[in-house]
Design a protein that fits this description.
Number of helices: 6
Radius of gyration: 18 Å
Structural class: mainly alpha
Shape: globular
Oligomer: single chain
Distance between the termini: 48 Å
Largest sheet: none
Length: 147
């Protein structure tokens, strides 16, 4: 499959996982299965195929910023990098939803974190961790469970 075609397919696949997370209160098991397992595995398989078939011929590497920039001039390797982001950010988003449910954090408070994780990965994670911190310090303990 051509890199452009795989790129065009990867967006809607990843978005299906993010949509599942946004709608998780309606089907939590399905959302978690989709967003933390099925879609990340599909993206990871495509990533592995791209790396295995293109890595040896790619210029550049990880020794310097210039090497990384050169590495990503190869379309297949750049696509692999994109799939890496899609898979890991979705996996983190699924973790945020699972953690929020376990800690009784309302889903409406998690939604902005998910948007930020989707768009800016580590920033969304930081906001979610901040939400957990605030909820832990200021939340009233629930009878029979942790805040």
């Amino acid at each position: 499959m051509q890199p452009d075609t795989l790129f065009q397919l990867s967006g809607p696949v990843a978005m299906a996982g993010w949509l599942a997370l946004a709608l998780t209160p309606f089907a939590p098991r399905l959302a978690q299965m989709t967003a933390s397992l099925v879609i990340p595995v599909i993206l990871s398989i495509a990533y592995a195929a791209l790396i295995l078939s293109n890595w040896s011929g790619a210029e550049g590497g990880f020794g310097s910023l210039a090497d990384v920039m050169l590495l990503f001039t190869n379309p297949a390797i750049a696509l692999a990098g994109w799939l890496h982001y899609l898979a890991f950010d979705l996996f983190v988003g699924a973790w945020e939803v699972r953690t929020a449910r376990r800690e009784s954090i309302p889903h409406l408070l998690v939604l902005p974190c998910l948007v930020l994780t989707f768009l800016f990965g580590p920033i969304g994670l930081l906001v979610f961790l901040g939400l957990r911190l605030v909820r832990g310090r200021f939340a009233t303990p629930v009878a029979g469970g942790a805040a």
